[in-house]
Amino acid sequence: MTHKDALIVGAGFSGAVIARTLAEAGQSVTVIDARPHVAGNCYTERDAETDVMIHVYGPHIFHTGDEEVWDYVNRFGVFRRYDHRVKTTSQGAVYLMPVNLHTINQFYGKTFGPAEAAAHIAAQASSDIDEPANFEEQAMKFIGPDLYGAFFKGYTEKQWGCSPRDLPASILKRLPVRFSYNDSYFAHPHQGMPEEGYTAIVAAILDHPGIELRLGTEYEAGMEEGFGHLFWSGPLDGYFGYALGRLGYRTLDFERFTEEGDYQGCAVMNYGDSDVPFTRITEHKHFAPWESHEGSVCYREFSRECGPDDIPYYPIRMVEEKKLLADYVAKAQALEGVTFVGRLGSYRYLDMDVTIREALDCARGHLAAQAAGSPT
Ligand code: FAD
Ligand code: UDP
């Protein structure tokens, strides 16, 4: 059998960046993916009916403060500036999200300046919580019960299928609270959308003579025979045949509908009320404001528990998962010749820029260890 340097499972950003880094170092690698397309969950495609670019597995906005990662993705396609601004519907009104001075003034019917708004929120918030132990305590400490009830409680129960008291505070820390009119969803200096979608970017990363790509190919035990190393960006528990049990994920269902013209006037509208069963509606054409389309494609997004045949989206990481994760990590660390990478391989929520950063570091570390003659 011909020897190749690495078998890489998964043709998302993790697998593609590792493959490219090894190939550029002169190695010969094979990338497989069970799906019939590259780009993993970042996959985009043009809608046959309207020609709108669709984010098939949910809305993806590229944002980063990592200069090298930004330069890296720009090598493989054109990114257009896109500033993500989210709205949220709650109790019959539309507000700006994340919570900012406009949200606060509109919600309380006030004309506060920044310091007055901060003082007003501080008066609502719980001052006796030093270290928030969960999502709800984090909300109580920083925004108080009114804003929490209107914008976070219902949404979070729908998104995660449990009480916010059972979720880590870190989930809420992803969102800022601003006492200014800055309503940008992300704070990073670079924000953008690939002009031709993420699929084209990942396909360009994989386009190298040292990379063989096999789509529609599910990993089978022993496939790595004849390869120097296995990089695994599939589910960590899946590699071990779920021997210790399944790590919990939330999955998403998207209900597609089309409209003439403009349905909601923005890319993403969240729904904070618990009696609305979906979490948000994405209107995809607003991700490409430089394009013009008469028709419009929208996705209503529903979150639910992930079954064995569903696509895993969000790792839950609650107490029981943490114990199971530690057991799987111990099994993974005992292996030689296999490296677990990416959002599924490490069972973490990773933004695209962090995924690319970790994949670059992983491949470079692997090459350096090989050069030094150490096992990886
Ligand atoms: P994936 O993209 O999941 O790729 C893994 C690949 O492995 C898949 O293609 C899968 O088919 C394949 N695979 C798995 N098991 C096997 C097997 N046994 N055999 C063969 N192939 C296999 N990030 C941002 O920066 N901005 C955003 O706005 C953003 N929005 C998001 C919205 C949602 C709803 C979600 C869930 C995530 C979002 N992300 C966002 C995160 C982004 O999706 C991830 O950073 C990215 O997908 C990670 O890439 P990956 O290659 O690690 O994993
Ligand atoms: N969240 C919320 N209401 C909103 C937006 C977010 O309650 O309108 C909560 C929800 O629990 C979510 C978390 O804040 O999981 C982090 O928000 P983010 O936008 O980062 O969520 P993601 O990108 O993971 O969907």
From TrEMBL:
Gene Ontology CC: one annotated term: cytosol
One term of GO molecular function: flavin adenine dinucleotide binding
Occurrences of domain UDP-galactopyranose mutase C-terminal (ranges): 150-349
InterPro entries named among the record's database cross-references: UDP-GalPyranose_mutase_C
PANTHER family: UDP-GALACTOPYRANOSE MUTASE
Protein name: NAD(P)-binding protein
Organism from which the protein derives: Harenicola maris
